[in-house]
Amino acid sequence: MTFSTDSKALFNGLKSRLFNELRSGEELNLNLNAEDTLFVRLNNARVRQNTQVEQRRLEMIFQQGQRRFTLQTDLTGHLESDTDLCRSLLERARIETATLPEDPGVTPFVNRGTSQNIEDARELNFDEVITTLQKSGEGTDLTGLLASGPQVRANANSKGQDHWFSTRSFFLDYSLFTVNESKENKAVKSTYADKEWSTEQFLNNLTFAKNQLALLKRPSRDFKPGDTRVYLAPSAVNELIQMMGWGALSYASYKKGQSAFAKMVDQGAKLSPLFTLRENFDLGLTTPFNSLGEVPPRQVNLIQAGELKQLLVSSRSAHQYGVESNGADSNSWGEEAPRSLELMPGKLAAKDALKQLKNGLYLSNLHYCNWSDVQTARVTGMTRYACFLVENGEIVAPIKDLRFDVSLLNIFGSELEAVTSESHIQPETDTYSQRSLGGKKLPGLLINKFTFTL
Amino acid sequence: MQPLPIRPQTLAFDPVNALKWVRGTADWVGLRFVQEAQQSRGIRNQKPETQNYALERGVQIEVLIDGHLGYASTSDLTEAGLKRAATRAAQLSKKAAASKVFTFTPDLRPQAVGKYMSPVVQSPDELTLQEFISFLIEASRRLKVSDDIVNAAADVMFTETHQHVVSTSGTDFAQDFLLWTTNFTATAQRGGETQRRSLNGPVARCVQGGAEILDREFLLRECETVGRQALELLAAENCPTGKMDLILAPDQMLLQIHESIGHPLELDRILGDERNYAGWSFVKPADFGSLKYGSSIMNVTFDPSPKGEFASYGFDDCGNPARREYLIENGILVRGLGSLESQKRSGLPGVANFRSSSWNRAPIDRMANINLEPGETPLEDMISSVKDGVYMEANSSWSIDDYRNKFQFGCEYGRRIQDGKLTHVVKNPNYRGVTVPFWRGLQAVGRAQEVGQFGSPYCGKGEPSQVIRVGHSSPPCLFSQVEVFGGGQ
What CATH topology corresponds to A3-216? Predict the structure, then answer.
């Protein structure tokens, strides 16, 4: 038995027992999020902390008519004691729904079918990886996180719907550090992620990062805040696109007055014709089903050639506001967030990006973005890692960190000059509470005017 | 009538007995049991939105092998489950020890015996589910003072946490926390303009205590004020742009302290553990005892003792008894936020702050309550001293670089200060600066009776990542010549 098969047996046992306990008019939706993950935290290519985490978390969404109560619990992995625990939670859910007023966002559960997606891979060899990291990382001050192991996402409801997704994968999210000729700390960031570890592939990844580190050893040049041309590498684009998950693309957020794209909905504001954004579940980065087991279309066009086609709409928002759902998931505040975004590539060859930039800044990464004014889609944040001054199409020097404050409506609108023809997968490496699934596929962007303030 | 707290049928678990199952696994073994029950209750426009209950329950086994500390976490609380976790912790840690970052010794896990409990006047069991839900619906109704209020949200997060730590060196301490986070927000919309106003900022009201902390009549009156202020903001002019004096209310000082004092002083950041994620720090080890962090009226403490403050506790996760310590005294940096491990690695003075979010994450250096000590200047005297400035309340936006230097923060609500008087309301108030010059510009600190006690349930950090609860108290403060600005493109 493996972690995944054990988890499946437990989930099957619980769902059959719990669905069997339901009374007339009661509905139940179950989600299992489980993982058995090895986390290794690295500092200077040495182990700071190693933690093995075996966890199985069950979510129970209980409904009675227009009333809903959601429960989550850690499971022990033993069917009898977990059944007792879930039964007692079910009892409380009955009391809650008898007490709560009606919720206008509640829709009856339906059977949207079944699916099974099982991917397995060879377990990561801890000794081999640690030895490789220590040897190859020597002299580079390699710091970061290795996470590896099986992950499970399962969904079932009392109407017969049944989805299973299990996978095994790893990621190594790391930075290399150096001190440059100006005596400043400089760093480059990289991620190596796959199903199975290959030392050869990791060393290729590391060599690429080391080459960038060499450029950072040059003396830094001051760059005065103001407007300039920039090239955003895909990892920098990732930080800005991430903001679209903070309400911008959510229909519920729009209705609450908290969408940064309200002007695109209400006033017909448009982005650049070069900007096309969609949810693309064919990227295979996450489960095909959401937390209610709904299966969205494989592609959901959100912004087509600069024009907003639709916001993300969950079945909750659809019911509440009388619009059509596009299978989006909604979080516990009822707001939708993208799960597998793809920004469509353009025509600029990445190798020509610096040449077309000519003079300006090359930004590999951005950091700590936040809305500075939601109503105008204005975002502030910092440059981070490998960021360079470019003159006459050549990298001439690393820069000191700069703060920017820009409107997405501008930089993805009239100021967007070109989009690279190559795109890169940016895997989700979030580990709050559990390892995330998902990610994005993004190209690089050439921006004519980007505003730095500090 | 059903009481608010939920008591599910869980498998019995005794950490003291469980330690016997795993004590032979390594040179030293610790066991940390965490059970946390959290209710998230949200009413929006007088209808239910979030009605959640989440139970986290599990154990983290910690082993010391060949000078290396490693962990394994499990929610399987049977004897077999814990033995498996202990074996995995030991096997992995033995392998990792060959590449360990530092050689640790058992004295970093002092024997700790005792109890901590949140201060409770009225048991939450006296609060019924029915009256609690009715209160939230009424709060949402009071927030909606006009049809221009499109979103009236009343949210309460109620958390009961039990932690019990035992070890082979005789540690046996238990801590029980009752934690409340409230958010009452009104969003107003008219003619393409949208403004949001809340009670001290979303989730800033964080406190430990019993049902008495929900002073319902008082809160309902405050909700009406919030609704009216949201409308005021709709009609307000933008915050001006320019360098001017700035007074920050305690509900914004919480964020200023958190981002520009708390994080840069974390010793694990200074030691580089966090460089791949949250970042490093501009603070260098040599700065302790000498760096003039701020003006001479700046005094900052790590203080896990104030009654009811959100991150008060008795022991950190490695059993270090929590004590109040000065971090910055008369403007000089004197101590870092570092656990016994970080203190040993860096040779710097630290505090009891080795904390984890739950049973499934290893402890790291965290903030607890980081407080700006009160001064002597009444708020009204501060205002009188300003010829041209802005007063800002309640955080709405935050961003700072990975060394904790260049920050930009936004607030919900501002008032102009002109010729020593508070004048009209301004919307979208923002400001930016650089940490040390900003704090050196601290001109006045409010009095003890003006201190506001706030916090956050969501301080994110670490690899793997985890959130922790923090508390911050401060009086209002005056800063000179800060770059302020408003919204718009």
Answer: PmbA/TldD fold (3.30.2290)
B80 by DSSP, 3-state: which?
helix
CB contacts, 8 Å: B466 with chain A: 432-433
Is B192's pLDDT higher than 90?
no
B44 within 8 A of B156, measured Cβ to Cβ: no
**Contact: B48, A332; criterion CB under 8 Å:** no
CB atoms within 10 A of CB B147: 9
Partners of B57 on chain A (C-beta within 8 Å) are 73-74
Answer yes or no: are the C-beta atoms of B299 and B327 closer than 8 Å: no
Q: How confident is the model over A142-162, as a mean pLDDT?
A: 98
Of A180, A179, A185, A190, the closest CA to residue A143 belongs to: A190
CB B12 within 8 A of CB B33: no
User: Which chain B residues are closer than 8 Å to A372 by Cβ?
Assistant: 397, 399, 408, 410, 430, 487
Mean per-residue pLDDT of chain B? 97
The answer to whether B10 faces chain A, any CB pair under 8 Å, is yes
Residue-range domain boundaries for chain A: 3-216, 227-451
**φ, ψ at A189 (rounded to 5°):** -115, 145
Contacts of B410 in chain A (CB under 8 A): 372-373
Q: Does B232 touch chain A (CB under 8 A)?
A: no
H or E element, residue B234: helix B216-235
B48/A49 touch (CB, cutoff 8 Å), yes or no: no
A&B contacts, CB < 8 Å: 286
Instruction: Decide if B395 touches A, using CB distance below 8 A.
Output: no
Task: Find all residues with CB under 8 Å of A21, minimum gap 6, and list them.
Answer: A87, A90
In this predicted model, what pLDDT tens digit does every residue of B415-431 receive, in sequence order? 999 999 999 999 999 99
Chain B residues within 8 A of A407 when measuring between CB atoms: 489
Nearest-Cα distance to chain B for A256, in Å, is: 6
Tokens representing A39? 């986390």
- Average pLDDT for chain A: 96
Q: Which of A130, A145, A380 sits opposite B99 (nearest CB)?
A: A130
The pairing of beta strand B172-190 with beta strand B113-117? parallel
Q: Which of B405, B407, B313, B331 is nearest to B367 (CA)?
A: B313
Q: Which residues of B62-92 are buried (b: 16+ CB within 10 A; e: fewer)?
A: bbbbeebbbbbbbbbbbeebbbbbbbbbbbb
Cα–Cα dist B287/B60, whole Å? 35
Å between A353 CA and nearest CA of chain B: 27
Residue of A nearest to B273 (CA): A43
Helix (H) or strand (E) run with residue A124 in it: none
Instruction: Using a CB–CB cutoff of 8 Å, tell me whether B51 touches chain A.
Output: yes
Write out the E strands in A374-438.
378-391, 394-398, 403-407, 416-427
Tell me which chain B residue has its CA closest to the CA of residue A97: B51
Query: Are residues A70 and B73, on separate chains, in Cβ contact within 8 Å?
Result: no
Domains and CATH numbers, chain B: 15-235 (3.30.2290.10), 238-485 (no CATH)
Which residues of A fall within a CB distance of 8 Å from B192?
266-267
- Using the predicted structure, report yes or no on whether residue A1 has a pLDDT greater than 80: no
DSSP string, B87-151: HHHHHHHHHHHTTBSS---GGGS---EEEEE---SS-GGGSBHHHHHHHHHHHHHHH--STTEEE
Pairwise CA distance, residues A447 & A408, whole Å: 11
H or E element that contains B453 = strand B452-461
Average pLDDT (A48-69) is 98
Please check whether residue B130 touches A, CB under 8 A.
Answer: yes
| Spatial distance between the Cα atoms of B170 and B164, rounded to a whole number of angstroms | 13
- Whether the per-residue pLDDT at A332 is higher than 80: the answer is no
